[in-house]
Amino acid sequence: MKEQDLSRVFIEILPMLDNFFFKDFQGIYEQYKLNKTQHKTIIVIGTFNGSHMTEIWKRMGITKGNLSIIIDSLTKLGYVICERHTDDRRKVSIHLSESGEKIYNEAMDDISENINRKLSAISKDEKVKFIDSINFIYNIASKFPV
Predict the structure, then answer these.
(1) Percent of residues in the chain assigned helix, strand, coil, to nearest 5
(2) Containing H/E element for 84?
(3) Is-contact 115 23, C-beta < 8 A?
(4) What are the angstrom distances between the C-alpha of 25 and each of 29, 63, 77, 83?
(5) Confidence band of 101 (pLDDT split at 50, 70, 90)
(6) Residue 78, by phi and psi: left (phi above 0), alpha (psi -120 to 50) or beta?
(7) Beta bridge partners of 81
(8) Tell me: the pLDDT tens digits for 56-89?
(9) Chain centre to alpha carbon of residue 80
(10) For residues 80 and 114, which has the higher predicted lDDT (pLDDT)?
């Protein structure tokens, strides 16, 4: 496969994977007055609880400015708590509030259920290959410089 073809595959597969994990959550967005990006942010914060802003925006692939706006909105909604470090006031740890934890836990249950439902449409052999492939891509991609 040429690098040009690889670029095309990435351009095509990223939205497919995004929809694979997040397409069926419209009801949650409406219930908690969230948009898709806010919902993803809650999932990232819950997964890496206590992370700093820099870690979160890098994991999400968005700009610092966009993340600041999202964190401010989630704080106003009562889903996120920002904690400044006493030794370095520039550092801010981000945590989920109790209501944010509820959304996170619900989201993780829904994501697992969604994944299992979608994977049930393929054979056992294809499922193993898919999971192995995702793990392989993750392991390789984690070696790339940020």
Answers:
(1) 70, 10, 25
(2) strand 80-84
(3) no
(4) 6, 24, 19, 29
(5) very high
(6) left
(7) 95
(8) 988 888 888 999 999 999 999 999 999 887 787 7
(9) 15
(10) 80
Residue 11 neighbours by CB distance under 10 Å: 9
Say what the pTM is.
Answer: 0.82
As a whole number of angstroms, the distance between CA 39 and CA 126 comes to: 30
pLDDT score, position 75: 96
Distance from C-alpha of 133 to C-alpha of 139, rounded to nearest angstrom: 10
Cβ pair 92, 85 in contact under 8 A:
yes
CB atoms within 10 A of CB 93: 15
Structural class in CATH, domain 3-111: mainly alpha
Q: What span, in angstroms and rounded, lies between the C-alpha atoms of 74 and 38?
A: 7
Q: Exposure of 42 by Cβ count < 10 A (0-12 exposed, 13-18 middle, 19+ buried)? A: buried
